[in-house]
């Protein structure tokens, strides 16, 4: 049964989220691009001790102050016990107990006896950071499901973490169907060059999956026996297998009979979207009791990419425990036609501010030139048209691994 495009994305994400669960610890140096499987909590107050924000003097009592020592970053400051005394203090150093104020070095003077005078700075910017100013011990800094980037790694290191517990990366494979495909050389004599085998693994990696080169195979011979053998073998080590082509019911389309033979359950079977409608997502039972997923991508290259970011990207987000993707809104600079009762995904390039989108040319479902010049797709909902200046959802192409979604 054909499914609405937004509903198809929801179903794909829900299926992935239900199958998530594997976790592992990774060192901070290996955590970029992974996903927190546990909330990131402060292991201590941040900062853990009162910390000077300036180079200057920690003073007590009335001025002038007599210097009685110096505190550098990394040292434990002795208490300042007597009125009229001060410690020289460096930025990042521990503020001594008993200090009443900090005086910036540039706001101070010294007399002939070496005594220090000056005025503490007043206003909204404190001269030292109080313990717990940024976070208190055990406070949740980031929830489970947060995509880890260098900033997340930085706050984890600040807290004192050596490693983070993350969701396991989904393992993905790819099977390319089609006797008409060439894996090298230029197209001709009725045969076309395979463009999906080289590009789909990159999209999968950008969605957070691992793709071993040995998990990419094809072209698979156009027979049911060859399809069954290839799919069975590909599913054994994988969480997800993508296939290209064969999603319809033509004379050499063997994917649906293969799924029936494997006892698969359709999550989505055909989506009301143009281009790309003959896409599918199925759950395949594994001999070990763990379900695998198969995503059937259409054979036309642009349609295949649309199927990938429609079904596979939400599925992989769910498998990694991430929140369901939320689409931004952009203003289209030109009119974009609707596609009747189907959602229309129109290739578009974002403006410099990221808030506007201009449709690009060469957008046939078999073309890749438009895709290579686009940032994603303007989404025109069923039964609507988009005029220049209208606000519409925008479906971005997957980001480089490690970037925030």
From TrEMBL:
Residues 173-318 form the MoaB/Mog domain. One of its GO terms (molecular function) is molybdopterin molybdotransferase activity. Its cofactor is Mg(2+). The keyword Metal-binding applies. GO terms for biological process: Mo-molybdopterin cofactor biosynthetic process. Its EC number is 2.10.1.1. SUPFAM superfamilies: MoeA C-terminal domain-like, MoeA N-terminal region -like, Molybdenum cofactor biosynthesis proteins. Pfam families: MoCF_biosynth, MoeA_C, MoeA_N. One of its GO terms (cellular component) is cytosol. Pathway: Cofactor biosynthesis; molybdopterin biosynthesis. The keyword Metal-binding applies. Catalyzes the insertion of molybdate into adenylated molybdopterin with the concomitant release of AMP. Belongs to the MoeA family. This is Molybdopterin molybdenumtransferase.
């Amino acid at each position: 049964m054909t499914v609405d495009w937004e509903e198809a994305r929801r179903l794909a994400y829900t299926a992935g989220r239900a199958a998530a669960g594997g976790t592992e610890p990774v060192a901070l140096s290996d955590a970029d691009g992974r996903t927190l499987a546990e909330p990131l909590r402060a292991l201590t107050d941040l900062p853990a001790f009162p910390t000077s924000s300036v180079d200057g003097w920690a003073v007590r009592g009335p001025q002038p102050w007599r210097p009685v020592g110096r505190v550098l970053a990394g040292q434990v400051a002795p208490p300042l016990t007597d009125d009229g005394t001060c410690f020289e203090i460096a930025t990042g150093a521990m503020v001594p107990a008993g200090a009443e104020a900090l005086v910036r070095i540039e706001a101070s003077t010294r007399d002939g006896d070496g005594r220090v005078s000056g005025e503490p700075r007043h206003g909204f910017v404190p001269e030292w950071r109080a313990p717990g100013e940024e976070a208190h011990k055990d406070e949740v800094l980031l929830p489970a499901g947060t995509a880890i980037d260098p900033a997340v790694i930085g706050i984890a290191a600040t807290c004192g973490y050596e490693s983070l517990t993350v969701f396991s990366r989904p393992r993905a494979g790819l099977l390319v169907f089609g006797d008409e495909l060439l894996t090298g050389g230029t197209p001709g004599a009725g045969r076309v060059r395979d463009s999906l085998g080289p590009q789909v693994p990159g999209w999968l990696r950008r969605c957070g999956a691992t793709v071993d080169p040995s998990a990419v195979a094809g072209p698979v011979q156009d027979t049911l026996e060859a399809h069954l053998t290839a799919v069975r073998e590909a599913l054994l080590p994988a969480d997800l297998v993508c296939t290209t082509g064969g999603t319809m019911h033509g004379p050499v389309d063997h994917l649906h009979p293969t799924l029936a033979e494997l006892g698969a359950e359709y999550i989505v079977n055909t989506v009301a979207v143009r281009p790309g409608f003959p896409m599918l997502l199925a759950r395949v039972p594994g001999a070990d009791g763990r379900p695998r997923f198969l995503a059937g991508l259409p054979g036309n290259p642009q349609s295949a990419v649309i199927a990938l970011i429609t079904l596979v990207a939400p599925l992989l987000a769910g498998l990694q425990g991430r929140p369901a993707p939320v689409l931004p809104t952009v203003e289209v600079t030109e009119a974009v036609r609707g596609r009747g009762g189907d959602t229309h995904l129109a290739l578009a390039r974002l403006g410099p501010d990221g808030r506007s989108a201009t449709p690009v040319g060469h957008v046939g479902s078999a073309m890749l030139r438009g895709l290579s010049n686009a940032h994603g797709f303007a989404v025109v909902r069923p039964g609507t048209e988009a005029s220049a200046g209208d606000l519409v959802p925008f479906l971005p192409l997957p980001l480089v691994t490690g970037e925030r979604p």
